[in-house]
């Protein structure tokens, strides 16, 4: 089985059901789905499939640059954020990378391919899986071999944000010690106050800063794939271009990226829905004494489940797929991640868990 979320086709085949009958809480995709603006762009440009996209993606870069208020020379688009992570690893080739535990697994895979070694800063459950600044900088002081730091903000799978104050202090440290600082902001668009946390306004202050962004989650286009890197370090971007496969971004992803970033109505609608429904879902889940819920700023929640054996499989029997976090470093098999989905889907999840807990209680009595 795939270790990532979103593998509904594989799971459906395993269960012997149609994939459309499976409710997927394992992939953190905007539950509002494709916006009306995005659908219109698709319809208008469907015949563009007859043509190659611009190999340099000039209009796409310009649209991303305009949205963030930076130079288009700072923008490196990719076929999903994953492509950019692997290309960046190929170019930077750090000797020793610092990662959080738990966090997104692709960082370690990408840097492992280029022979990097790793140190891990373990996030404590007692502190809500948030970074303790004093302990974090003390860890850096004691590990001078580190020449690259990769942080996910908000973190996956915890949904915890890292304060801009901490990141600004860390960037200063990285600039002095020549440490590459990679910030993955794949889920930051789900925060209505994004400017309070993103470090994009610091790009021109350091060539050591690399910011990863994804359009896949917020705009619900995992089947198209589109992400990008922002950095002031043009030298790194030029080297990445040498490794990049030509036309890796398809033409529909290209034109969508040019048009959806300024869809303010959809952005506001998403923020309002996620903030309200995430809190409702958390409140309902906290009613189960077997489940501990960790508050989140993203569109997903981390759960710790006790006294229920085979929790994921029991939900699978009800055609609900959640993300097991057993393969996240620092977590165990009783941790799970669930996406915030539609009101109807979230209610179905609550009802299914209610039945699972009731059956578990009856079997133990």
UniProtKB/TrEMBL annotation:
It comes from Vagococcus fessus. Keywords: Cobalamin biosynthesis, Lyase, Pyridoxal phosphate. The keyword Cell division does not apply. Gene3D superfamilies: Aspartate Aminotransferase, domain 1 (3.90.1150.10), Type I PLP-dependent aspartate aminotransferase-like (Major domain) (3.40.640.10). Pathway: Cofactor biosynthesis; adenosylcobalamin biosynthesis. This is threonine-phosphate decarboxylase. It comes from the Bacteria. Pfam families: Aminotran_1_2. NCBIfam families: L_thr_O3P_dcar. It catalyses: O-phospho-L-threonine + H(+) = (R)-1-aminopropan-2-yl phosphate + CO2. Residues 21-353 form the Aminotransferase class I/classII large domain. The keyword Metal-binding does not apply. Decarboxylates L-threonine-O-3-phosphate to yield (R)-1-amino-2-propanol O-2-phosphate, the precursor for the linkage between the nucleotide loop and the corrin ring in cobalamin. One of its GO terms (molecular function) is pyridoxal phosphate binding. GO terms for biological process: cobalamin biosynthetic process. Its EC number is 4.1.1.81. InterPro entries: Aminotransferase_I/II_large (IPR004839), CobD (IPR005860), NHTrfase_class1_PyrdxlP-BS (IPR004838), PyrdxlP-dep_Trfase (IPR015424), PyrdxlP-dep_Trfase_major (IPR015421), PyrdxlP-dep_Trfase_small (IPR015422). Its cofactor is pyridoxal 5'-phosphate.
